[in-house]
Amino acid sequence: MTDKNPDPTHIRLAKRVAEQLSCSRSTAEQFIEGGFVSVDGQIEEAPGARVRPDQAVTVAPDASLLELTPVTLLLHKPAGFEAGLGLPAGQAAHASRSQGAQQALTLLSAASHLPEDASGIRVLQRHFKQLECFTPLPTEASGLVVYTQDKRIARKLAEDIESLEQECIVEVKGDMAPNGLQRLCHGLTFNGRPLPPIKVSWQNETKLRFALKGIRPGQIPAMCDTVGLTVVAMKRIRIGRVPLAKVPEGQWRYLQPWEKF
After folding, report:
1. Which residues 6+ apart lie within 8 Å of 56 measured at CB?
2. FRET pair for 168, CA 20 to 30 Å: which of 21, 31, 113, 248?
3. Is the pLDDT higher at 23 or at 76?
């Protein structure tokens, strides 16, 4: 536990580990944040935690800095939460407080991790730090949002999001105008510009499936309005080749090594 007035006999865990391993303080901190250090048999991920001289501090024999790879989290954002663009987690949370909005990244925790996640990755507190989001989604929409620590994936999403096909399921009401489905696929304009051909089909009597690239805020509701339909709800289920899969609202899973956008 950290303390504003610590007992002088208690020392920071990072210092204790550095002394035990004869390594630098920064290396010790990485081992701790990697989940390799236990205090009295319990994993402790806070380098600043203070330990007593009589407490047993153990470093896992398989501890390796090679395992400290960045992760990417795939969240099923519920409607009513904001998913920003390119903001690290701490900054986005601050922005949320200042604007009075609910940030989707506040849903990312060990408690909301998908129990059936097939990645095999052990959840660590460091996985929720330095996350960036380059896949914004309107507050009123639900579905797949990507948060990543991986600079390569961040660069891929930042540079290629316009060319990655996104798939959305859109619930609508109203009576579609004659030839409305054909017009949704090709022939409409948005913000004064002709839209390129896209794939639109009925999933059932009230839901349309959109598959399109370079989607703009407000584009799908405007398209539906043009053909006499009103959007009731919208959910993004795929970005590029990465699907939301069977992740319930408010939960998340890890991007697996073989998955590519």
Report:
1. 38, 39, 40, 41
2. 113
3. 76
